[in-house]
Amino acid sequence: MSPDREVLRVEDLRVEYVTPDGPIKAVEGVSFSLQAGQRMGLIGESGSGKTTLGTAIVRLLRPPARITSGRIVLDGHEFLQAGERELRQLRMREVALIPQAAMNSLNPVMRIGDQIADGIIAHAQSAKIPRRDVAERVARALWQVGLQSYLASRYPHQLSGGQRQRAAMAIATALQPKIIVADEPTSALDVVVQRQVMQTLGRLQQGLHAAVLLIGHDMGLVAQFADTIGVLYAGRLVEQGPVEDLLDAPRHPYTRLLIDSLPTLDAKKALRGIPGLPPSLLNLPPGCPFAPRCPYAFDRCRVETPALQPVTTLQKAACHLYPAHTSLPPLPERADIPEVVAPAADAEVAV
Amino acid sequence: MPIEYVAKRALQLLLIVFVAVTINFLIPRLIPGDPVESALQTKMAMTGNVNVDVQAVAAAYRAKFGLDKPLWLQYVNYWGSLLNRDLGVSLVDFPQPVVEKIQSAVPWTLALLSVSTVISFFLGSILGALIAWPRAPRVLHVLVPPFMLLSSVPFFLLGIVLLFTFSVVVPWFPPGGGFDPVSILRLDVPTVLDLLYHAILPSLALVLGSIGFWGLGMRAMMVSVLGEDHITFAESKGLPPERVFLWYGMRNALLPQVTSLAIALGSILSGAVLVEVIFNYPGLGGILFLAIAGKDYFVIQGIVLMLILALALSLFVVDLIYPLIDPRIRYHP
Amino acid sequence: MSVATPTAVTGRRPFGTAALRGILRSPRMSGSLVAGIAMVALVVMLSLFGPRFVNARLAAVGSVRPSQPPSAQYLLGTDSQGRDMLTIMVLGTPQTLRIGLIAGVVGLAVGLVLGLTSGFFGGAVDAVIRVLADSLLTVPSLAIMVVIAASVGHMTVELMGLTVAALAWMHPTRTIRSQVLSIRERSYVSVARANGESEPGILFREIMPNLVPYIAASFVGAVSGAILAAVGLEAIGLGPNDVHTLGTTIYWAERFSAVLRGQWWWWGPPIVAISFIFVGLFLLSAGLDRIANPKLRQRT
After folding, report:
1. Is A264 left (phi over 0), alpha (psi -120 to 50) or beta?
2. What is the interface pTM, i.e. ipTM, of the complex?
3. Which of A188, A266, B142, B165 has its CA 20 to 30 A from that of C27?
């Protein structure tokens, strides 16, 4: 079997928000690539830049956000250089966005079927789809996400939360894109429905053999779905690797603390959080952004920003502990709390 | 259309009418002083009968019209006569019934108001929506200051300026009135054209006066709608921008805009009445002006009642439009 | 947007005054607010000091040559009843402002009381006030005011103000009521309640200071609406009979067909003055709205 080709490559992407108080650097040089059919998860806290990254990859950023540099290659197309027409054509056919909170993303005054259909019709000419096939495609799109075709004539408010999220998935994937960017598709749902939706996403991915970039803050949820995970902190990718390796032996201190902070049913232990607050993206301290909260931090960390380098064949981490070490040392038993860096008062921007 | 919705709205309509009619009944009776007597005095003065005992005549009037009975009885009688379509008689043009006077005026006001409102609402909304859309030609933004200016100026003042400019300075339009005084009203083309000719300036006053309001309002709604997530999702599908603007933007912004219309109808009606005064237009405004000058009390009351009813009915109609444009009301989940 | 800190907990003044101080200091005070204040201030100054510089007798019928266009002697001309227009304008503008002010203050006071009561106590009281306010909001205000004005025998400036106020209270009531409802459920009120503050105490110390921006915006809106209504009533002949106002001037101009006779100096200045006042109040209220609603402040 031929190796899966690369469908998405992000090179040194930088995004900033222009504010009267100065630029907020929401994404600082993120690079990764996705093969066809690969499932990648992107984890980060609020303020880590994950939503900005997801929105930037599909070029749906709104001012005051803007991409300042970097390269996105979508199945061979230079995405950032694409003109308007090309951009519209690439949408839906190559890359699709599954939004958070479908209730807000679905047009409340349009029937579900029409919302699926207008995307198909918009591409009908270029994709060479005859109009009479549209209804059939609408039905197929719904079937693909496990929804019955009668729902096409309903309005969003007549559907349940899970149905709405799946309807949004149907709308986005109606033209069988090669890349799906799913931005926290289950955050507005309860646990049972979350599972349903994630299962649907999984089946959809398999059926389309699409690459999926799943963005979220719930480590458990993302880990169950993804093959590879990237960890985002302060707009930077601090660790990346296959999901089992990452969970068993995280290489970056932040990842380690993140995993440790998850409560588990297996052992009884004290809840351990990560002391401190995420840094202000307006005034990032020099050096590693995690240094102020890192239990392993030493002098070099506060001066030089570490780059993402391979630690093992498949795992990469951005930490000065490597390549001197091969894995994380045991956590130092420090009683003192690392210094807290307060965020700026006006950071009202959701990243 | 859900039946409960219509029934609820109809009930609200009746409630409003009830409250308004009651207030209309109570106010003159609560204010000290007697409008009938003062109207009679004015009339006496105008016709030179200064030696007549005004008190006695007023007393006779009051007895005839039941104004000397206890309040609650008057109230009951009031409703009785209302339901009998009896609004009293004109004191100035005695004994012409008030209903007759009003009946001839209503179609004029209705026509003027509905045409002007429809034009300014749609034109203003489209312009406002385009101003809010980043892809529309920026030159449209030049409309914003005039919109702001126009919406701050009351209609009838605009009417004065228009009348002066287009009837006196350049005599392009007739100096008021609803029709050519020496013509006979028939249903034929010259008459219709004549009616239109006379309606242009008053209509323009109403349109210019309200277009700014609709434009700025729609612009604000559109800005808010365009910031919502469903627009982003629509764009992520690669839809042509015109489609996003019309069906995901304007279509959604129209809903609060219709609400705006309902709320503004009252003041539009009031403004239209004043515009008619300026242009001597033979609608409700025209006869109101004459009635006030002659202190023709029952005519004034009758017109006020008519205005209240007209507004309540218009609100009811606008309320019925909602289910048609908002499926969330049409279909309960 | 900064969340108001409960006075009970931190001892600091809540949102209203802190925001006001912050706004006045910040360069973000919007252009419309400044322009609006300037325009209104100009009119107020003119109204306060203007009447001292004119001879009131020139505003009486027959005091000067009638129907004169503006000239060096009569800067704004004279009307067909022999009154000097400049004098009339200078004397009439303050009266119009007075009516607006009376109606605005009374309307706002009533609105404040009813809004606070309705929002805070809820239940039957709220229902009654709401039904009354909504019914009156949906009738054409001119209609009711015409009935009131026509019933009054001798109309004065004060009565005019009260007449207009009768239909100026509904909007402030609704605004304040909805603000009270939303503030009341916020956590800092629960904190105050848990701390044992009495209900009226909560009303005054936690809720009212947060209403300041809305009260200011409502006041400007009420004054603006009042002047509009008053001018309308005056123009059809229901204005005060003993003084000049901007609206009554227009009425007399109408009565004497000044428009058709091309005597623009008679009805022109009142229209310009009224427009100026309205535009100024509009800008002022837009500026105040931005302070009351910080989301509007972030328009880029």
Report:
1. beta
2. 0.85
3. B142
